[in-house]
Design goal:
The chain is built from 4 helices and no strands. The protein is mainly α and 169 residues long. It has one domain.
Length: 169
């Protein structure tokens, strides 16, 4: 059941992220053609801003799902396997806590925007649904972070590059 939820969340985030990226590209293309014809696409910047918001927050869970975000460990190549395992789990816990705090701040901001009735500048549409969507995507990232902690083994040295080269470059 948990694996089905994880796969479904991953699929949803991937589709949303890809659709937002394609939408941004199409808007930029149509707007650039329109500008050459002195007929720019009205509200193009707002379209792109909202699509970028959706793309960015839908991509965060994908990065966490694949455990492909950047982790910097000072002298981590010199650690023993036991310390590497500890560091991996400890930083994973900190990431989940940080993402949870970030999700809470986004939720709080969405509540404020909804309370004040904040509208977008060009189309005059409510902004809170977009921020609530960002909150939902942050929750998906928290889910993937927890799943990584739950089942992920420590990083395999063969799959990660080392800061200190082993031999010839």
């Amino acid at each position: 059941m948990i694996d089905r939820i994880t796969r479904l969340l991953g699929l949803i985030c991937t589709v949303i992220s890809g659709a937002a990226f394609i939408f941004m590209a199409l808007i930029a293309f149509v707007d650039s053609i329109g500008r050459q014809l002195n007929k720019p696409l009205l509200g193009a910047s707002e379209y792109v801003e909202l699509a970028l918001l959706i793309f960015f927050f839908a991509s965060i869970p994908i990065v966490y799902r694949d455990d492909s975000h950047i982790r910097v460990g000072l002298f981590s190549d010199l650690y023993s396997k036991k310390i590497k395992r500890f560091e991996y789990r400890f930083t994973g816990i900190l990431e989940v806590i940080g993402l949870s705090a970030f999700a809470y701040m986004i939720f709080d901001q969405a509540n404020r925007l909804e309370r004040f009735g904040t509208l977008s500048s060009h189309f005059r549409i409510p902004m809170s649904p977009f921020i609530y969507a960002a909150f939902a995507m942050c929750l998906a990232a928290v889910w993937f972070g927890i799943m990584n902690l739950r089942k992920a083994p420590p990083p395999d040295e063969e799959h990660h590059q080392h800061a200190i080269p082993d031999g010839d470059f």
